[in-house]
Design goal:
The complex is a heterodimer of chains A (about 160) and B (about 120). With about 160 residues, chain A is mainly α. Chain A is built from 5 helices and 1 strand; from the N terminus they run αααβαα. Chain B is an alpha+beta fold and about 120 residues long. In chain B, helix 1 packs across helix 2. The relative contact order of chain B is 0.19. Classes of the chains: A mainly alpha (about 160), B alpha+beta (about 120).
Chain lengths: ~160, ~120
């Protein structure tokens, strides 16, 4: 085999692998809004339950657990929907999520702090916190998808 | 299924030497398994071409095909078998060997004093 052909084949292999890795990182368009709703709704129910007391508190606990279950189900469903399954070690997942996670948490904390600063009570501040977390997570997925699609286009 | 004889040392594997087959195998080597449509899109091949490649590679034991469902929709998942991964690794090693030999030969030719080849 010719050396140029060998070099070309090696480049082709790396390009194919890169496309697979990028495709695996895509999340379905519905994932961001669904994750945001799964985060915000339990917070809203919790605020409502704190005002009513009694059985509503128990209900809010159930809704919070359901929200958590929905989150886990969404993660699994989203992985299957991308069409490319890659098992990343937890360390790699954390490394990838570290910057957006810290940014979104900081934004949520800032929203809570600002609400309290401007005289909002704990319930309102908590809803604001979860709204920012939910919308922040959605934004992170939109940005990540856009970056991946741009790289896929560049890769041809 | 007729398993291909995977060599123990770097060698160009004719079963995956074709660029399209190599692209499919390389794509699958970067993941645990991939859906048929994702491989088709990632490797930019047609349905029929990918079907042929998948059947051929499955026949020699390089590729596994799994039928499943996502919701109610039927899906076909493709993955490389350990034999397929080994074949790709040896194929890549052979390609790297060819490229390295050519680079070495090029470097030696560049270092040779002018007129060294004249005799």
């Amino acid at each position: 085999m010719d050396a140029d052909l060998a070099a070309e084949a090696l480049q082709g292999i790396e390009a194919s692998r890169e496309r697979a890795r990028l495709t695996a990182g895509l999340t379905p368009a519905w994932y961001g809004p669904a994750a945001a709703v799964a985060g915000i709704v339990p917070a809203l129910v919790d605020v409502w339950a704190q005002e009513r007391g009694g059985w509503a508190v128990f209900l809010s606990l159930l809704v919070a657990l359901a929200g958590l279950a929905v989150m886990v189900a969404l993660v699994n469903l989203a992985r299957r929907r991308t069409g490319v399954m890659v098992t990343l070690p937890w360390s790699a997942r954390l490394r990838r999520a570290a910057v957006p996670l810290v940014t979104v948490l900081a934004a949520g904390g800032a929203a809570y702090g600002l609400c309290r600063q401007f005289g909002a009570d704990h319930a309102v501040a908590k809803v604001a916190l979860f709204a920012v977390l939910g919308i922040g997570a959605w934004t992170v997925f939109v940005i990540r998808n856009a970056k991946i699609k741009q790289k896929l286009r560049a890769a041809g | 299924m007729t398993a291909a004889l995977v060599p123990d040392e770097p060698a160009i594997d004719p079963a995956i030497n074709h660029p399209t087959r190599l692209a499919v195998v390389a794509f699958l080597s970067a993941c645990d398994e991939a859906e048929f449509a994702a491989v088709r899109g990632g490797c930019q091949v047609s349905d029929s071409m990918l079907s042929k490649i998948a059947s051929a590679l499955e026949a020699i034991g390089y590729l596994a095909v799994r039928k499943g469902y996502v919701g109610k929709r039927p899906r076909t998942w493709l993955s490389l078998t350990p034999a397929g991964r080994q074949a790709l690794a040896l194929h890549i090693a052979a390609l790297q060997g060819i490229a390295a030999t050519a680079r070495k030969a090029g470097a030696e030719a560049g270092e040779a004093p002018p007129g060294a080849t004249d005799s």
